[in-house]
């Protein structure tokens, strides 16, 4: 499945949910912890002060990344598993997902919304990272998937009824082993396999 641009943006934003959470925490005004909670925040929000230096931008980006992450999981669920393959070899590559976005998350931990020039520079940098990963077909490599029990495999496989072997990266939500027969959907250049599998050639 070739992603449309809007879907690619959503998936990319979802992968940076940890960064939005870090920036939200850095924007928090901890002096408000000593004050009483404003109970009118939902009924009379004008009487309350949000405990952030830049509440509009920090909360907006956080909510957008959170919704994008949820939308990413929905896209995975809606990916149709049409074709069947037999796994010949499956190599689990646990650190590969971490290598795609986590280094960028860590590198921006010192950036805040109050530092305008650095924030604009971060946006420009993230735009280029988005465009590169979108064009390379590796956009769905999201380290948050590790927390949700997804695994990345380097798989050698053959299609049902064929003898020619192929190699591909496979995202699976459970363990993959040689001899498994699975159905898959594809998002860009990556196969997506869910828990619809049977052993030893059963159909």
TrEMBL record:
Top-level taxon: Bacteria
Transmembrane segments: 5-25, 57-76, 97-113
UniProt key word Membrane: yes
Keywords: Membrane, Transmembrane, Transmembrane helix
Designated name of the protein: Uncharacterized protein
Organism (species): Rhizobium glycinendophyticum
Source lineage: Bacteria, Pseudomonadati, Pseudomonadota, Alphaproteobacteria, Hyphomicrobiales
